[in-house]
Amino acid sequence: MNASLGPQPIEPETVLDLLLHSPSPAPLLSEVGTVTQVGDGIAIVAGLERALADEVLEFACGLSGIVLDLEPGRLGVVVLGPSDQIMIGEAVKRTRKVVSTRVGPGLLGRVVDPLGAARDGLGAVKHATLHPVEAEAPAIRDRQAITHPLATGIKAIDAAVPVGLGQRQLVIGDRQTGKTSLCVDAMLNQAHSDVICIYCAVGQRGDAVAKVVAALRAADMLERVIVMAAGDEDATGLAYIAPYSAMAMAEYFSGQGRDVLIVFDDLTHHARSYRELSLLLRRPPGREAFPGDIFYIHARLLERAGQFTDRVGGGSITALGVVETQAENLSAYIPTNLISITDGQIYLSPRLVRKNQFPAVDLGKSVSRVGGKAQTAAFRKVAGNLRVTLSQFEELEDFARFGTRLDDATRARLTRGAAVRGALRQAERDPMPAISQLVILTAAQTGVFDDLDEAAMRAVMDQIKAEAPVVLADIAKQITQGAELDDVAQAEMCALAQKARATAKGGEDVPIA
Ligand SMILES: Nc1ncnc2c1ncn2[C@@H]1O[C@H](COP(=O)(O)OP(=O)(O)OP(=O)(O)O)[C@@H](O)[C@H]1O
């Protein structure tokens, strides 16, 4: 009956169908453009009216680039390679693809570039498939609370600024404060866990990356690590995509239920490379000449980390982002942005470096917003007073520097504080099992180290590190299962520490009451 009443309304689905299946107007619009300007890692391309944002274009010389700016009649393209190979007037083709990298088990033990191509001279990467570097972060319902610790093997961190599996934590500090060393040590400690590590070097010198690779190889850890390098001599475009690409590699493993630790070394260089590209593309500069979307480039990266539910594989991605500050200025633009995106920061202080206190973790300025919930009960008990003891000590230490005469109680507090700070010292490439850390921290807080000099203390700590996992194997097992530290266990730990102290002093020492 309706048919006789004139034209019928068209269903919305039918309209979409018509649009999708109508003959393409492609013959009118070219799919090959030309380069009109090139230099400093950027190419300006004309004649590709239908190119999309983030699409990969292919230059006639074989290089590829990503469309970052879309303007009428003009595309701003970031070149993923040496842009001096591109000539003005050169043809550029659309690919209708977004930028992808290789992901898969074949990347483990390899040093690769952000596109997943080998950089270690060991031949092509096998057992890997292509995957887009950008991905949407998992939704809230696909995320779980952070409940398991990621042991870094570093006393100052595991005790006072604990990191949980799936946490996003910054390692922040001035130049040469030990940021890279701390992250490498955290990766080395994963030799005792099933966690897969990815080290993403952005804007680092080649020799610095080689040092990290050598440290991982020396500890027999390289087979469990992917090293991605976009060095200072590489194209800025590669440095820009490196963290997203490393994250895509991490997502492959987390999707299979694995725990992944990913280190971005460092995000300051990443922000600078994006600023360079944006300025060359003539985007309006904002604060510190960074473009307006600088917050978004890091937020969209770091929100891809987390602890995920079984629906999306059940794995986790823990992100350690390194940030370099200048003159201890934590309130500069990039550090504050990143601090507000992440779940806490480990602040490395040049003041402590000058005192030769390594790792130079400043507990007063470091915080872990979610790691505490993942910390084991034993650590929580031992580490409870650590921050307070240290902050009181530092206050008194400044005061005592004026040569003030001190009463006995104050002097005792200074001695104890110095012992606790000494106990937090740890050499590079020397991560420690949890039980050894707990014995050392308990010993320091009960006065076992009070009258020892630095060398003696190091000898005692070395002995505890070696003996505790063997002698206190049962307690170590209970601790990993989340048991509380009872008085008996604590007494056994102190006894071991006192024995180590006596050995270090040649067996003549009187045990501490
Ligand atoms: N635990 C440690 N014990 C002794 N020395 C250390 C320790 N950690 C780091 N160092 C030393 O501190 C120096 C700086 O370390 P590292 O390169 O890790 O710092 P960084 O902050 O990453 O430097 P950059 O700012 O150049 O990236 C190195 O010489 C390193 O050997």
TrEMBL record:
Any one of the GO CC terms: plasma membrane
Keywords: ATP synthesis, ATP-binding, Cell membrane, CF(1), Hydrogen ion transport, Hydrolase, Ion transport, Membrane, Nucleotide-binding, Translocase, Transport
Matches recorded under Gene3D superfamilies: 2.40.30.20, ATP synthase alpha/beta chain, C-terminal domain, P-loop containing nucleotide triphosphate hydrolases
The keyword Translocase appears for this protein: yes
Catalysed reaction, written as an equation: ATP + H2O + 4 H(+)(in) = ADP + phosphate + 5 H(+)(out)
Enzyme class, UniProt record, top EC level: translocase
CDD domains in the record: ATP-synt_F1_alpha_C, ATP-synt_F1_alpha_N, F1-ATPase_alpha_CD
Entry-linked HAMAP family: ATP_synth_alpha_bact
The protein's name in its UniProt record: ATP synthase subunit alpha
Lineage: Bacteria, Pseudomonadati, Pseudomonadota, Alphaproteobacteria, Rhodobacterales
Name of the gene this protein is made from: atpA_2
